[in-house]
Amino acid sequence: MTLIKSISGIRGTIGGPQGEGLTPVDIVKFTYAYCACLKKRKPQPYGAKYKVVVGKDARMSGEMVEQLVCGTLLSCGVDVVKCGLASTPTTELAVTFAKADGGIIITASHNPRQWNALKLLNEKGEFLSAAEGNDILALAESGQFDFAPVDELGHIVEHDFTDEHIDSVLALEAVDAGAVRAAGFKVVLDAINSVGGIIMPRLLERLGVECITLNGEATGDFAHNPEPLPANLTTLSETVVKEKADLGISVDPDVDRLAFICETGEPFVEEYTLVSVADYLLDEAVKNGRGPLHTVSNLSSSRALRDVTEAHGGVYFAAAVGEVNVTTKMHEVNALIGGEGNGGVIYPASHCGRDAMVGVALFLSNLAHKGLSASAYKATLPQYYIAKNRIDLSDKAMIDRILEAMKEHYKNERLNTADGVKIDFESKKQWVHLRKSNTEPIIRIYSEAATEQEAQALADEVIALANGIMEKR
Questions:
Q1: Is the pLDDT of residue 302 over 90?
Q2: Residues 191, 216: contact at Cβ < 8 Å?
Q3: Which among 77, 110, 467, 469 counts the fewest CB atoms within 10 Å?
Q4: Do residues 113 and 60 touch, judged by C-beta distance below 8 A?
Q5: Which CATH code for domain 385-472?
Q6: Per-residue pLDDT, 439
Q7: Which band of pLDDT confidence, cut at 50, 70 and 90, is reported for residue 438?
Q8: Residue 67, number of CB atoms within 10 A of its CB
Q9: Can you give the pLDDT at residue 186?
Q10: Nearest to residue 458, comparing CAs of 396, 402, 410, 398?
């Protein structure tokens, strides 16, 4: 059984001893701590109770967790707006639609079916800051709980925000619904038996796109590993070719990550979801004389976004890994577009959260404008390959020694130490990023180059250096 506590919330496997899995006791105490910190962070709404939005993906444990979360909120004197089955971006937007004071999303994102989690939002529908998250963790562990008396209990209302979310996507100026309808696209959607099967076909229908849906029943009994990686999308790839579709679309269970399959059945590559959408938005901004042309991704994401940004005369900024770090940097630099290389598109004109619906609408608008197939368009973008490796350590104390040694060894290269150590080899257009896990004694090593062989060779070089350091201890 596993329980992971972090600044962004709490996640774990369902069941087991309290404190070792995601049990009812853990759910209640972290929901209570969220309420208590909300009341400290934000003044009492004039003449009203605090209001919190709650949404869930279709996981089999979702109803159980939802009842505990909602019951705890009510017992804290907080009113609840229950969204029911809703994507993560739908729940984020619902916070602002409902003029709520915060939100709790019940989802373990791409984790397998035995996992669930609480993701915590502020009044903007964005993830809490690191300091706010740490306050919640501390209060949850203190055991100092004080619930509302009977006359001050909260109340609950139910509201489905799915259509409001879709309306907001179609209202975006950069979404050219007319061009998408005229293109007559045919797509295959893998909804992985979760809320993507509810919202994505409705969006595609309103865009005039013919949609063949796989795994569309929102049962939470995932048909395959729910992370949208090529190895898990073989049936989607085969169906795209069989149906002569223009595109395959894959989302994760809470629909904040997005990956495409080309009409050939080959992956468009998850890293290029953000790159392609940014390319389109930068094109449109340049045509319309708008700025600033700023983009953001995390340090482990492809250099292709930087290349595309600079080709349009813009400026690229890097952030530490983690959605809240990316959105913080986006606010800081007034970014046009940002996100993560895992297929996470964050478009501030909509909201500052990863949103697969926004990503699909912008990607289809791009293809319609360019008049290219997905594979032909992919060939126009800078071509890179990322290798993903890790070093497992028996001694956690070795992690910092290895990172310090890497900084010294590569001191003549361009270094970024905002999150571990990233080494840029500018002349070769290559990089390697080493960062420690927050939960395991490992160092993750991501490296990128023009070919798979070069990317892996760079990783092998770094791993050999790390092994040498460990042998000398």
A1: yes
A2: yes
A3: 467
A4: yes
A5: 3.30.310.50
A6: 63
A7: low
A8: 12
A9: 98
A10: 410
Antiparallel, parallel or unpaired: β 9-13 and 3-6: antiparallel
Concerning whether 109 is annotated as a catalytic residue, the answer is: yes
pLDDT recorded at residue 465: 93
Average pLDDT over residues 29-41: 93
Which class is domain 165-247? alpha beta
Q: State pLDDT tens for residues 262-271.
A: 999 999 999 9
| Domain spanning 3-160: CATH 3.40.1180.10 | no
Comparing 3-160 with 165-247, is the CATH topology the same? yes
Classify 267 in phi/psi space as left (phi over 0), alpha (psi -120 to 50) or beta: beta
Find the helix packing angle between 356-370 and 88-97, rounded to 10°: 100
- The Cα 400–Cα 223 span in angstroms is 40
Mean pLDDT of the 133-150 span? 91
Reported as half-sphere exposure (CB side, CA atoms, 13 A), residue 241 has a value of 9
Whether 299 and 415 have beta carbons less than 8 Å apart is answered as no
Nearest to 71 by CA among 103, 28, 109, 8: 28
User: Average pLDDT, whole number, for the chain?
Assistant: 94
- Scored b (16 or more CB within 10 A) or e, 201-228 reads bebbebbebebbbbbbebebebebebbb
The pLDDT assigned to 25 comes to: 94
CB atoms within 10 A of CB 451: 11
Query: Beta-carbon neighbour count of residue 42 at 10 Å?
Result: 13
Residues 48-54 have a mean pLDDT of 94
Q: Which two tokens stand for residue 107?
A: 């989802």
Select which of 8, 75, 109, 168 is catalytic: 109
What's the whole-number mean pLDDT along residues 308-332? 96
pLDDT over 80 at 12, yes or no? yes
Which residue stretches of 80-161 are H helix?
88-97, 130-142
CA atoms of 261 and 250, how far apart (whole Å): 8
Query: Which candidate, 207, 232, 399, 401, places its Cα nearest to that of 215?
Result: 232
Give the pLDDT confidence score for residue 318 in this predicted structure. 96
Q: How confident is the model at residue 184 (pLDDT cuts 50, 70, 90)?
A: very high
Of 279, 367, 355, 366, the C-alpha closest to 316 is 279
| Domain range summary for the chain, segments of one domain joined by + | 3-160, 165-247, 385-472
With b for 16 or more beta-carbon neighbours within 10 A and e for fewer, the 266-291 pattern comes to bbbbbbbbbbbbbbbbbbbbeeeeee
The tokens for 152 are 């001050």
What is the helix (H) or strand (E) element at residue 247, kind and residue range? Answer: strand 247-251
Indicate the pairing of strand 258-261 with strand 210-214: unpaired
Structure tokens belonging to residue 330: 């986006």
